[in-house]
Design a protein that fits this description.
heterodimer; A: 3% helix; B: 43% strand
């Protein structure tokens, strides 16, 4: 059973860089049928797609965050990571990692499963 | 790309049905057969309940059903049960650079 687990600091100072890692267990990150994605949810608000990465390293970002976001993958560790720079209080959110089906290979599109999420607070 | 529009709340008594709408545009909901619905209980991660507009993942009760007409997708929960009380989010593939757009979310209350 595939599982994803987010890890990283729960508190980041304004203007600094938020860094999170998602560890995939129970399956390989090097699957042609899936992307690996990050989604966030500010407290009491809705979901926002941040971006996705393919195991080859191809990335896709939300245009609203593209200038500040970098997603990378380490297939040897079965992990992928998120970096968001120049953070402000507006970046305070629960950050989720999730597997995303790849239309070109799987013929479908959805996020499943999801990690449990990790709260990142931006505050001095 | 704007968030898909959902009503903030919906409710029904046990055993009744509730339907949630999700309105987008021809560039997302109306343009692709890739509308998904997620159930989120408080403090928990979202869980996939519908994908490709109307398909149910294994393990999801057939009380959950999806449909679409034009640029509006809908999720219907029939035979409401207490455990169906949760937030529900729609999402859609939006083409162009694998963009994914989520809905604003609907809180379903079982009276």
């Amino acid at each position: 059973q595939l599982q994803l687990q987010e890890s990283g600091p729960g508190l980041v100072k304004p203007s600094e860089t938020l860094s999170l890692t998602c560890t995939v267990s129970g399956g390989s990150i090097s699957s042609s049928s899936y992307y690996w994605g990050w989604i966030r949810q500010p407290p009491g608000k809705g979901l926002e797609w941040i971006g996705s990465i393919y195991y080859s390293g191809s990335t896709y970002y939300n245009p609203s965050l593209k200038s500040r976001v970098t997603i990378s993958v380490d297939t040897s560790k079965n992990q992928f990571s998120l970096k968001l720079n120049s953070v402000t209080a507006a970046d305070t959110a629960v950050y989720y990692c999730a597997r995303r089906a790849r239309i070109a290979a799987a013929g479908t599109n959805y996020f499943d499963p999801w990690g449990q999420g990790t709260l990142v607070t931006v505050s001095s | 790309q704007s968030a898909l529009t959902q009503p903030p709340s919906a409710s029904g008594s046990p055993g009744q049905s509730v339907t949630i709408s999700c309105t987008g545009t021809s560039s997302d909901v109306g343009g692709y057969n890739y509308v998904s619905w997620y159930q989120q209980h408080p403090g928990k991660a979202p869980k996939l309940v519908i994908y490709e507009v109307a398909k149910r993942p294994s393990g999801v009760p057939d009380r959950f059903s999806g449909s679409r007409f034009g640029n509006t997708a809908s999720l219907t929960v029939s035979g409401l049960q207490a455990e169906d009380e949760a937030d529900y989010y729609c999402s859609s593939y939006a083409g162009s650079n694998n963009f994914e757009v989520f809905g604003t979310g609907t809180k379903v209350t079982v009276l």
